[in-house]
Amino acid sequence: MRRVSKIAAAGVVSAALALTATACGSSTTSDSGKPSSGGSSTASSGGGSKAKGVGMAYDVGGRGDHSFNDSAARGLDKADGELNLESKELTASNGETESDREQRLDSMAAAGYNPVVAVGYTYGPAVEKMAKKYPNVTFGLVDSVVDAPNVDSMVFATEQSSYLAGVAAALKSKSGKVGFIGGVQNTLIGTFDAGFAQGVKDTKPSVQLTREYLYKTDPRGFNDATSAAAKAQGMLDKGVDVIYTAAGLSGDGSIQKVAGKSGAWAIGVDSDQYNDPALAKYKNSILTSAIKNVDVAVYDLINSVKKDNKPKVGTNTYDLANGGVSVSATGGFIADIQAQIDAAKQKIVSGAIKVSSTP
Amino acid sequence: MKKFDKDRALLGLAAPVLAVLGALIVTGLVLLASGKEPFHAFHVMMTYGSKSDSQVYILNKATPYYLSGLAVAIGFRMNLFNIGVDGQYRLAAFFAAAVGGSMSIPGFIQIPIIILTAMVVGAAWAAIAGVLKVTRGVSEVISTIMLNSIAGIVIGYFLQDGRLGVTDKLASTVTTKPIPSGSHLFNFTTQTDPVVGFIVFAGLAGVLYWFVLSRTRFGFDLRSVGRSESAAQASGVSVKKMVIVSMLISGAMAGLVGMSTLLNQSYQFSTDFPAGIGFTGIAVALLGRNNPIGIAIGALLWAFLERASNGLEFEGYDKEIVGVIQGAIVLAVVIAYELVRRYGLTRQQRQVGAELAAAGSVDKQEVTA
């Protein structure tokens, strides 16, 4: 009997403690005043000598994903360093709903961060809504288009860089068989597929291209290295000796398999994967990477808002001509064919070659 | 009839409260170890989580968690581990969205049709596990986990352009056809974002759960099978039938999980439809001890923690801290319940022993006298 009361007392005391804590919380809230007109609630921790900087909303994976979130982060770091800004970075988690994404943008816009950059096409609808709510804040949206006067829609002509990757693959393949692995069969990955196929065909029509997708619709395709590895192994077994993988983090699995076969080459995507510390072991098998310079786009936007005071808005396409996409030459594996790649690049820039964006 | 046992009620409350407290202590230690100040973090969580727009968010987020918790709890009461709520609600929401998007009739007819579709699909998917268990003795734990995976593949098959999906030109995502605006469920407007109307249905489901389980013959049968299959069998309850029926009800309840998102927020099913709520439901049902009010509190706590993680991230803490708290709560809850259960058992034994001893000594006195 006595022990019961002891446990019960412990429960009651801790419940009371919890309640007191709540009371503390709400009183502090009322001290700090009403929530801002934006409806968001977050008191800013800012201040100090630095100016309110950029609000970055990353896609799942966030800073440190060795892929396009990291690329966006590089643009931010560069701008932060030059302009002495204090920025805020928030990251999406798995299984989010629309309201989570809206809240993330809302809280940063309300706290005074400008521009607010949303990394990834999933933010499209949220950016559209928040751009209406905060007409004086400039929003950046990577990989999708929102038609609003204060939105910078950054789209990348990845079919152009993939075309150059195709040129390199066709020239480097000894077996005459090259492969493409896509993470998810959607329009975005379709641009990689189409550009690569066209590059291969224009360079050496005799080269045979195998295309595989990991998933039809499931976004898991960007985070499933095991199934990418299986697909790559299947291709290698059939004699394919250059594999281009456009599948986010899944690409690591494919690169790993390719590195296991001497004479085979992997082509990386989004970032210069030769320099990726996670892939350092396999870097001598990474022929080149089709790079999407999200950092250039992000830096451009921040600069336009913070330095020039003339926000860059509208749909801005980043392509080979303005350095928004490119292929890397790190490692020097494509030094012998650089001339042909440059020639192809010139033709695309001048418009002599039109690269299709649908497979 | 039943005397209210104050000690037992307190004991029941003590376990979850102690579990949450224990989780906070663990989290505090983790924060300390990573060189952060724990009390400020808790303070941030409290202030951020109690703001008006946070409250709305918490209610909206807790609605599917609550339904998921109920769905899991129905199985738990019967000693069935329905791990498959996740697949059941996703498949249900998908087909409900497909049905909803293909019709354009007045909302007061269409909304019930959408909800019914979801319940039927959820129940049918759960029934597969039930039938396998009854006819072939397949453990429902294994079959429901596998069915989760299969549900994802089935959705992936149908959610394609030309089947049940349409491709969004800009966003390169595939969705079902959006449900016409006439069939959007009502919302409660607040100063900030609206509160989902489906919360009413969730509340009704909770009342129904309580009534059916504790006030009907069926509920009694279900609980008795959960306590002891052989005893239930001996008293004339068909265990096989109960397994199937309770899986059906659990699956139908799971079908409701995705409805607040579908009817109040997204109006369509796309590849980014929230996943994993079925597993949250397991934690919530554990925390709430399968009690409808306890599950509600668990769901609200879970939603609060997730909301607070945004505040933490904004203040420069790692939002993963909330994951640590949630994990610690689940572990602590299991431990705390077991401790309290054992304690309750020894207490009962001691009481019975004391009563017997008292009775025995009376007997002896009579004999000696």
TrEMBL record, chain A:
Major localization class: membrane
Signal peptide feature range: 1-23
ABC transporter substrate-binding protein PnrA-like domain residues: 55-356
Region (Disordered): 25-50, 79-102
Pfam families xrefs: Bmp
Membrane topology, from the record: Lipid-anchor
Subcellular localization, as worded in the UniProt entry: Cell membrane
Source superkingdom: Bacteria
ATP-binding is among the record's keywords: no
Membrane-crossing segments per the record: none
Alphabetized UniProt keyword annotations: Cell membrane, Lipoprotein, Membrane, Signal
Biased composition (Basic and acidic residues): 79-89
Family membership: Belongs to the BMP lipoprotein family.
Name the record gives this protein: Basic membrane protein A
Record organism: Actinacidiphila cocklensis
Automatic annotation (TrEMBL), chain B:
Localization of this protein: Cell membrane
GO cellular component, one term: plasma membrane
GO terms of molecular function: transmembrane transporter activity
TM regions (residue ranges): 56-76, 88-105, 111-132, 141-159, 195-213, 243-263, 321-340
Alphabetical list of CDD domains matching this protein: TM_PBP1_transp_TpRbsC_like
Keywords, in A-Z order: Cell membrane, Membrane, Sugar transport, Transmembrane, Transmembrane helix, Transport
UniProt-listed InterPro entries: ABC_transp_permease (IPR001851)
Topology of the protein relative to the lipid bilayer: Multi-pass membrane protein
Name of protein: Simple sugar transport system permease protein
Organism, scientific name: Actinacidiphila cocklensis
